[in-house]
Amino acid sequence: MIVRPNLRRALVVVSGLALSATLAACGGNMSGMSGMSSSSAAAAAPSSSAAADPASMQGDVEFAQGMIPHHEQAIEMADLALKNASSAQVKDLATQIKAAQDPEIQTMRGWLKTWGAEEDMAGMDHSGMDMGGMPGTMSDDDMKKLGAAKGAEFDRMWLQLMIAHHQGALTMANQELATTADPKVKTLAEAIVSGQTKEIDTMKGLLAG
């Protein structure tokens, strides 16, 4: 068959248009696929703000490791008050301290287990004032003197020592609030600050009275 020049030119134009349309369609599909890939990657990748800060995480671990024995000593002091205090108000406060701090101990132990961390801080001496930089803790000698006291003398000594103990806990909790990025740790630290500040006010009032 003989193709006339005009017809040949027409076929070339039509073929060129068809090829352009095909390339445009492919280009559009590829753009769509590229956009989906970027979106999927963004969804899968953790945001930098959500990623755990190693320094903050280490601070949370050390906070729990330190606050657990700090709380345990407060409970030991509260048990002495329930046994030896002459004041019903002191005994009520001791009961309140135990009720608040024992669940907090269990919470922090659960965190350490979840984090895969040991409960004991490396190098920590639980016997007295060398308790791993935990302010307000009592020495063995302090605890022996408190255990030997009776009546009004016990009440006065217990209140003085527990105020100092609580003030130490406030120092630790406020330090943690300045560094933690974990909402649940922040909530507990805030509860310690709030609860123990009120208890300090109560104890100061009892001493003044």
Could you walk me through the main structural features you see in this protein, from its secondary elements to its overall organization?
- The protein has six helices and no strands.
- It has a single domain (55-208), classed as Ferritin.
- The protein has 209 residues and is mainly alpha-helical.
**CATH C-level:** Mainly Alpha
Order of SSEs: HHHHHH
Which CATH architecture? Up-down Bundle
Give the strand content.
under 5%
- Total of domains: 1
Structural class: mainly alpha
Question: Which of globular, elongated, flat, extended, rod-shaped describes the shape?
Answer: elongated
* SS elements, strand count: 0
Mean pLDDT: 79
CATH topology: Ferritin
Low-confidence stretches: 1-51, 123-132
Sum up the structure in keywords.
single chain, mainly alpha, 77% helix, 209 residues, Ferritin
In summary, what is this structure?
With 209 residues, the chain is mainly α. It is built from six helices and no strands.
Summarize the helices and strands and which ones pair or pack.
Elements (H helix, E strand, L loop, with lengths): L4 H40 L9 H31 L3 H28 L24 H9 L2 H27 L5 H26 L1
Helix pairs in contact: 2-3, 2-5, 3-6, 4-5, 5-6
